[in-house]
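Example with several molecule types.
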Amino acid sequence: MIIEQVQVISNQQIADATYEMVLKAEMATKMKPGQFVNLKVEGFLLRRPISICQYDQFNHTFTIIYKVVGDGTQKLTTLKVGDFLDCMGPLGSHFPIEAQTTALLVGGGVGVPPLYETAKQLLAVGTQVQVVLGFADAQAAFYIDEFEQLGATVYVATDNGTLGTHGRVTNVIAEQQLTAEYVYACGPEAMLRVLETRFEKGYLSFEARMACGIGACMACVCKDREDTDLYYRICKEGPVFPVGKVGF
Amino acid sequence: MDLAIKLPGLDLKNPIMPASGCYGFGREFSELYDLSELGAIMIKAATPTARFGNPLPRVAETPNGMLNAIGLQNPGVDKIMATELPWLAGYDVPIIANVAGSTLEDYVHVAKTISQAPNVTALELNISCPNVKEGGIAFGTCPETAALLTKAVKEVSSVPVYVKLSPNVTDIVAIAKAVEAAGADGLTMINTLLGMRLDLKTGKPVLANQTGGLSGPAIKPVAIRMIHQVYPHVKIPIIGMGGISTAEDVLEFLYAGASAVAVGTMNFVDPYICPNLIAELPATLKKYGLTSLEEAIGRSHRS
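Resulting structure tokens for the full complex:
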């Protein structure tokens, strides 16, 4: 983990209340798919944990996709090209990249971004990748073309049916009878819980409110599935856990 | 400039230490800097048995502060004695063990046990945690109860006992005097202020525990006021805490009457805050015409 002043290369809206920001950072060389950064936003005390969407270790850049959910993320949208941001990272565990025959990547809303670098790297090692993306509606959807351009097969679900399957990502999986050797997922707990009933192998990335992002404050803990005395910090041992490890 | 200061049980290289509950047992920060640089470490509260703490969400941001309701999550005193304290013994730094519980017997048991650890040189009696159903703040809001608990813990502790005061009281001086009379060797103040935030969509509290403890720069003036109020009425030293984020803040706490300070919430924002403050303190003292730490302590009260 390092703390660095990273520079904004671009910051633009890509969907309803959703922004993509590219940052110039030395720490890009240390990043792994599924990790996150903790950003200090001027005028706010606590840092904002945001997942890493993709990175370029040669050009020392990385991309985040964030949703405006409050005053802090609203403030992020005002950053201009050339502005600096106090950034801590990369943090947390990552999606292991191993060559498998098939992988199903499932993301809901702001759970979609970390799957992009993961898809890219899985495809690079020869894994056949299918992606299921879930959004509130067509206006909130993003990165569908980007995933397709990587060479993944993409399915979409929207809550109101304005794009793709009407319903949740789990409806798409059932409807299309999608199977894979491994699942890689990021999104709300309810979604992860359903996926655990369908897949025995894979990795799930959890979301939680955090304060420190480095394992000190105990704000984002979850329990082990078997051992009730054992707990994990989503920011430190997570956010990515193997299927079956976390007790809901 | 020499920043060393001696307090009961504490031979401090400098007056800066991380506050309990904001630093775990130091492991995460040991990856970033040498823990031996610190004046002391106030480790996370210990209870007789392991506690998982409160349901999530446990934190919420507020203007210049945060609310937390962790709920004293800790592995229990025996595990802390077996794993965390021996690990911390690898560093040249005195440990202040924060003692918590639900009953008087809990506090006595934890204090007796943990004060035996060779590197625990002082206890911090947590009678001010606002986030547990029993114990905690219930012991810290009534002078008689606070005194009773202090006396009981003093009888079994083999190291000096500091009592951590709650700001959620009408007369902090009365509590301070009561625990001093009961044998406290020092005071640490302040713990968090009880607060709440509501979700604008649901109208319900953001924290699962409903209420939480407010900390961060927002509470600094309250801490300064309370230390300033207590200082003239007690002979025992005060370790001050509450929203410290700069070396100037440290100076303000010293002026109010603190002999040393603890940094809490800001460890979450800048994990290097403690070593940074230690490095900046001599120049800051000098900037305001001070040639020693002693000159700053209680300055506000001298003519």
